[in-house]
Amino acid sequence: GSDVSGEVIAVESGCQRLRRGDRVWGDIGANAFFPNGTQTKELGAYGTYAVALETQLGVFPETLGYVEAGTLPKVSLTSYKALVWYAGAPWKTDDTVVLVLGGSGGTGTVGIQLAKAFGASKVITTTSEANAAYCRSLGADEVIDYHVANWWDVLQPDSVDVVYDTVGQRGTADRAMKIIRTNGSFVTIAGSLSNHPKPGVHQHFFINSDTNLDNYGLLDDLSELAQGGRLRMPSINGTYALSDVAEAFQQSAGGHVVGKIAIRVD
Question: Could you tell me which residue ranges the Enoyl reductase (ER) domain spans (predicted)?
Answer without folding.
Answer: 1-263
